[in-house]
Amino acid sequence: MANHPFELKENEERSSCSSDDSFSHRNGSWKGLLRGNGKEKIQHDHDKFSFRRRLFRTIGIMIVLGVIATLIWLSLLLTLPRRHRPQIPSNRVSSIVDDWRKPGDSISLLSPWKSDFTEGITPIACHSHNDYWRTVPLFEALAAGCTSVEADIYLPTKSGNDDLLVGHSAWSLIQDRTLQSLYIEPLFTILQSLNNGSTHSDGNDWSGIFQSSPNTTVTLFLDFKSDGSDIWPYVNRQLEKLRAKNWLTHWNHSSGVTWAPIIVVASGNAPFDLLISNTTYRDIFFDAPLKDIENSLYDNTNSYYASVSMSKAIGRLWLWKFSSTQLDKIREQVSVANEKGLKARYWDTPSWPAALRDYVSGILIERGVGVLNVDVFSSTFYFPLMTRFGKNRLVW
């Protein structure tokens, strides 16, 4: 049957469209495929990058939090006191520490005299290292029970002035911070009040600064910073006030060492040759080198302390612990010092962290060190280590 012309035209158009679609599909399919695959690849890469970024961010946050937590833990471990600190006794010396504002207060606050000056304080053989640096020189050490205070001394900078200046360096010197104002005058005033018309049942003709232990001698440790020969006569003149009262521990060739409330020890640039030049009487004793303690030059007729920097004497502490060799070295040095009647002292000891400080202090006490070097009083280190003072040596 013949097709209608209209139907033929419609079939031709349908066929043409089908042919065009087929052509378009054949010729354009590779572009569409690539376009589609490209979008999928970009999306995949984006998702992969986002995942990595989130992963790295999470890992970074975890690392930071871990570091913070570790630092907090270490700070608590190293700085928190491990034992209870006993309450500070209420007495006059503690009040002076609270009220002191300037060097002149070291004298003015001692008047009127209060009989409870060092009441309740147990003296211990600790050395107040660089004592003049403390907020309240001398009195902080006495309030803590320390029986040794250190002053770095310099020649006067003003002509006609005999007062030796006290400070850590020449540029830091201040005219009103002198050996007299910070140490000698206060010590003289304290001893004058404690010994004024008093009687002594123990047979001594003097009372020391610590009322709970009146036989205890306090060490005035003078670190000569100026030339030793130049400053030596000044030091002798400065001590005359205490010497005249027989309050200076001294040695003479006939009776040996006679103990008194104060013993003066010279260190730094102190001239050993001048110190021993008087062969009949001495009231200034030397700080012998502990590293050379076996030298026959040093004995209890001319020396009292034997000191050395810990790091120079035995080296570094690895892993916060002494090696067996280091322990043997400490034992040997301390033993020789004790045999000579001298007090071994190690300075440059760690004051932080607390655990290391307590460990080192404990080892030194166990080895029989004569005096413990102290830089920081605000810490609690010596309360767990020492409980009393006996026979002029440290005890647990």
TrEMBL record:
Residues 1-26 are annotated as: Disordered. GO terms for biological process: lipid metabolic process. Keywords: Membrane, Transmembrane, Transmembrane helix. The chain crosses the membrane at residues 58-80. SUPFAM superfamilies: PLC-like phosphodiesterases. One of its GO terms (molecular function) is phosphoric diester hydrolase activity. Residues 1-15 have a biased composition (Basic and acidic residues). Belongs to the AIM6 family. This is Altered inheritance of mitochondria protein 6. It comes from Botrytis byssoidea. The lineage of its organism: Eukaryota, Fungi, Dikarya, Ascomycota, Pezizomycotina.
